[in-house]
Amino acid sequence: MLFKSTVSALALTALAAGTAAARDNIQIAGSSTVLPYAAIVAEAFGENFEFPTPVVESGGSGAGRKKLCEGVGENTIDIANSSSRIKQSDIDLCASNGVTEIMEVRIGYDGIVFASDINGPSYAFTPADWHAALAAQVVKDGALADNTNKVWSDVRADLPGDEILAFVPGTKHGTREVFDEKVIIAGCEENGTYDAHLAANGGDEKAAEKACMALRTDGASIDIDGDYTETLARVDANKNGIGVFGLSFYQNNTDKLQVATMGGIEPSVETIASGEYPVSRPLFFYVKNAHLDVIPGMQEYIEFFVSDEIAGPDGPLAAYGLVSDPELAKTQEMVANRVPMGVLN
Questions:
Q1: Is the pLDDT of residue 13 over 60?
Q2: Cα(155)–Cα(187) distance, integer angstroms
Q3: Plot region of 303 (φ>0 → left; ψ -120 to 50 → alpha; else → beta)
Q4: H or E segment at 57?
Q5: Least C-beta-crowded within 10 Å: which of 66, 170, 196, 247?
Q6: Following DSSP, what letter does each residue of 199-241 receive, concatenated?
Q7: How far apart, in whole angstroms, are the C-alpha atoms of residue 124 and residue 44?
Q8: Which domains does the chain show, CATH number per domain?
Q9: What is the rounded distance in angstroms from the CA atom of residue 8 to the CA atom of residue 99?
């Protein structure tokens, strides 16, 4: 009953704005990682259905989820693309603004890769290496100290002697959340710095993780707030730099970039699908269910996106670099039944 009343409220909002019907195009914003996939689907949808081509914008996962949660009405977006899972704080914000039913749609998987200029040295990393290279503080002589590592061989003797210069996703990007969790915090735990931070913070685990994630501000680590094309431009201009990319972007730029191994595993569709590559993540979009019966073509777009022909292993998204979800059939059923999210696990 709540869903029906919310839809009615949306319709009334459209009428109050002086329109005979709601806008006729789907509005989408969010993750720059999901952006190319959504753009492929939007273009194909416009060509194959009698609905306008959806409008897809970037801006970052967190920003997209925030926009989704601004409220219900045609002046708000319909779908938020996200390269990290929604947070409880997002759900709470949505609820406070009347967005009470959200559908979580997992489209597949992607890996976070570490790539450098194709003509430069090759790298074989561990998460511990990246923490030791970029963290504001590391353990030296048994105590926490400011990080003074200058070249990669300072971190580990068998790494190249090139200057440490990393271009990492800015904090508004969903990729940064995964980078922090699966590389920086994991590396902090591997090299023992986490235990030192834990002791320094009286056993407070959250404070220790926050301290682990604090990165250098001396130029060794540079946040990139734009999309992967900006990261690529930085690497192109700084041949010793290493960029953090999505697998699909790297695969579409192998003429310019070479990829590093992580934990001895080379990133690929196969190693990500098997779970062997350690830095992989699911990709999502989040749907405002209250808009489904008001914005023309919205349900059709969502079903089209997760169809076997589009998101399956032989579809155009896989050809671009998406790792197809082995549980895609479950997602299709959930979408067909418009099942909203339950409580976060």
A1: no
A2: 12
A3: alpha
A4: strand 55-59
A5: 170
A6: HHTTT-HHHHHHHHHPBP-SSSEEEE-S-HHHHHHHHHHSTT-
A7: 39
A8: 2-109+282-336 (3.40.190.10), 111-280 (3.40.190.10)
A9: 13
